[in-house]
């Protein structure tokens, strides 16, 4: 959520920044201005009436001491009390309306974010590794997996519908190995603390990260009277670890990692993406989340992005990192790097991680603060998040980049300790 003071005092800057994101928020900003003007008139009026009410109490006490009739004072106090309640109710209504509007407005891009309208305007930052030169035509994972007997789309569709998959045998083992490899790397070498969070969260948690109220259609809600949703990403429970709390600034930055399954309805068609494992309703992910001071957050974003890239480096998978433009960023982000892995069957790089600094946008929604030096005035923390990595897409990249002419797939050396030493996944026998 944007700082109300920023929206009030620098509204034209906010309007321009949102326009760079392709957002026309004129109506919302004008309504916020009107509400703020009304609120700033009501609060002094209410405070003056409260001051008069307190003074009236002293007048009543004085009249009683002097044996005078205080009924007129009591009558005026009753009317004033009713007026105070009326004004306070109006202020509360304004606050609720203002918060609702602020919850629907995206974050303002950082000054270093390039202006653009689509992915075509993103800026490549760096590349790692070289795409392999095949002496045969590389096949897509949706052909490789079934022929290896490790991915079954048909049986998944039978039990759950489209955009689900069953991993079997070495496929399930490979997925688990990737999860364990990523968690080991991030905890042992990158300094993250592993967390096993709930896989269901309430509406307040999703509001804190920016998934609600604007993106409810993308979520799976638990039926009945439960105020619970399946997590769309571990970013949600990890960020909400400290909702409503004040942290000791001396302990920042705090770094957490977690594996969770992720659930997203993602209504609509994505063309080729609905085939295979690219865009599933259920998928696995290892997430990275940080809580930092404002001064640390952009250095920590660079470090978080490098931590996610290191997974691909260790697996020997070619990748590139791009800085997203204003028109291609997520709702809560102030700055985002996408990491894209090379998929030979598509002859292109595809997103496998988004690493974002939301600055105080999520912290303001979730009321997460810190005291610099452990004491003194509180400030909002900055929160960062990134995939480290999306497990299903990493599995795709391993299958496609390590495929052999005979249909087998070589297991990357970094994963073999997590797969009981298995070196090659062989095609299933007829």
Domains (count): 2
CATH class term of the largest domain: Alpha Beta
* Cα-atom radius of gyration: 27 Å
- The structural class is alpha+beta
| Beta-strand fraction estimate | 15-25%
CATH topology of the largest domain: BirA Bifunctional Protein, domain 2
Determine the oligomeric state from the structure.
single chain
Mind telling me the CATH superfamily name of the largest domain?
A: Bira Bifunctional Protein, Domain 2
Kindly report the average pLDDT value: 94
Share of helix, binned: 40-55%
The CATH architecture of the largest domain would be: 2-Layer Sandwich
| Unreliable spans | none
N-to-C series of helices and strands: HHHHEHEHEHEEHEHEEEHEEEHEEEHEE
Count of alpha/pi helices: 12
Number of strands: 17
* Major β-sheet profile: 8 strands, mixed
Polypeptide structure, described:
There is one protein chain. The protein has 430 residues and is an alpha+beta fold. Helices cover 40% and strands 19% of the residues. It is built from 12 helices and 17 strands. Strands 1-10-11-12-15-9-8-4 form an 8-stranded mixed β-sheet. A 3-stranded mixed β-sheet has the order 7-13-14, with no helix packed on it. 36% of the residues are buried.
Primary descriptors:
2 domains, alpha+beta, 430 residues, elongated, Helix Hairpins, BirA Bifunctional Protein, domain 2, 19% strand
Q: What order do the helices and strands come in, and which of them pair?
A:
Elements (H helix, E strand, L loop, with lengths): L3 H6 L1 H10 L5 H40 L5 H33 L19 E6 L12 H8 L2 E2 H8 L5 E2 L2 H19 L4 E2 L5 E2 L1 H7 L19 E2 L4 H5 L6 E3 L5 E10 L18 E11 L4 H19 L3 E5 L11 E9 L4 E10 L3 H6 L2 E3 L7 E2 L1 E9 H11 L7 E2 L13 E2 L5
Parallel strand pairs: 4-8, 7-13
Antiparallel strand pairs: 1-10, 2-3, 5-6, 8-9, 9-15, 10-11, 11-12, 12-15, 13-14, 16-17
Helix pairs in contact: 3-4, 7-12
């Amino acid at each position: 959520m944007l700082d109300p003071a920023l929206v009030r005092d620098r509204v034209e800057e906010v309007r321009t920044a949102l326009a760079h994101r392709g957002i026309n928020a004129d109506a919302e900003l004008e309504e916020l201005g009107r509400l703020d003007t009304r609120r700033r008139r009501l609060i002094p009026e209410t405070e003056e009436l409260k001051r008069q009410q307190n003074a009236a109490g002293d007048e009543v006490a004085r009249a009683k001491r002097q044996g005078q009739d205080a009924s007129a004072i009591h009558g005026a106090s009753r009317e004033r009390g009713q007026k105070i309640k009326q004004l306070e109710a109006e202020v509360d209504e304004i606050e609720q309306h203002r918060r609702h509007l602020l919850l629907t407005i995206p974050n303002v891009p950082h000054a270093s974010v390039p202006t653009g309208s689509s992915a075509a305007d993103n800026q490549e930052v760096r590349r790692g590794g070289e795409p392999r030169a095949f002496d045969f035509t590389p096949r897509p994972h949706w052909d490789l997996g079934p022929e290896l007997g490790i991915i079954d789309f048909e049986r998944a569709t039978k039990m759950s519908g489209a955009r689900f998959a069953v991993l079997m045998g070495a496929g399930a083992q490979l997925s688990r190995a990737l999860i364990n490899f990523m968690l080991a790397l991030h905890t042992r070498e990158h300094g993250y603390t592993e967390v096993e969070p709930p896989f269901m969260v309430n509406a307040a948690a999703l509001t804190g990260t920016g998934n609600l109220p604007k993106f409810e259609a993308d979520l799976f809600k638990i039926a009945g009277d439960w105020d619970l949703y399946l997590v769309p990403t571990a970013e949600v429970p990890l960020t909400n670890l400290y909702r409503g709390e004040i942290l000791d600034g001396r302990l920042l930055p705090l770094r957490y990692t977690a594996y969770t399954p992720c659930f997203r309805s993602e209504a609509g068609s994505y063309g080729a993406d609905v085939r295979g494992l690219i865009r599933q309703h259920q998928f696995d992910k290892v997430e990275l989340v940080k809580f930092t001071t404002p001064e640390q957050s952009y250095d920590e974003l660079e470090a978080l992005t490098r931590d996610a890239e290191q997974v691909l480096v260790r697996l020997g998978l070619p990748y590139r990192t791009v800085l997203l433009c204003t028109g291609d960023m997520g709702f809560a982000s102030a700055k985002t790097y996408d990491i894209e892995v090379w998929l030979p069957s598509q002859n292109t790089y595809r997103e496998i991680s988004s690493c974002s600094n939301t600055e105080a946008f999520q912290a303001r929604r979730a009321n997460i603060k810190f005291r610099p030096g452990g004491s003194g005035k509180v400030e909002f923390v900055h929160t960062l998040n990134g995939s480290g990595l999306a497990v299903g897409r990493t599995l795709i990249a391993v299958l496609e980049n390590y495929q052999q002419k005979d249909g087998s797939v070589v297991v990357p050396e970094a994963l073999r300790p997590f797969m009981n030493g298995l070196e090659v996944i062989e095609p299933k026998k007829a």
